[in-house]
Amino acid sequence: QVQLVQSGAEVKKPGASVKVSCKASGYTFTSYDINWVRQATGQGLEWMGWMNPNSGNTGYAQKFQGRVTMTRNTSISTAYMELSSLRSEDTAVYYCARGRYYYDSSGYSLLLDYWGQGTLVTVSS
Amino acid sequence: SSELTQDPAVSVALGQTVRITCQGDSLRSYYASWYQQKPGQAPVLVIYGKNNRPSGIPDRFSGSSSGNTASLTITGAQAEDEADYYCNSRDSSGNHRYVFGTGTKVTVL
Question: Is A74 helix (H, G, I), strand (E, B) or coil?
Fold first, then answer.
């Protein structure tokens, strides 16, 4: 069965960086994009970006451009999301999710069909 | 700020029908997908494309779209449907970037 297993909780100081991992199993890792989504406590979902594990190509939400880097290690089917220059507003649960696309004659949509369990990142001095 | 707008909260009597809407310019060109999230859990995909349900999602969930508005309808709401619901679609830049809606809390009375 498809599983995405994320690394454990992190506590970081303002200005530091954090790197969260997402290990995929149960499918061919290079066949589907990995998306990253975060959620601050009591807040909504925020899409951060996508990475194609086959090519390494990425696309980031404008808000995170310059601060986020999404990478992968295909030999161990693991995706990574690194966020730098952390501030208190970055305290949130970070999720990875497998992304695929639905197409028909009228349009298309991204669908995030499997999600990791989430990683809490706390930024505090 | 989100480019997809949802009502913050709606309520529905047990067994009745509720519609959750998502408004945004990008919905004129792209489908929305819909996610259900219960407290302390990761989101779950419930609807994608024109009106498609992943395996395991009950058929009381359906989707539709008109103009700049996408809708998720729960027909015959159950107690277990009480959750937050989020839409997701391309952002209006059209540059393979995506955005979530502001979210709707559904309460089943």
Answer: helix
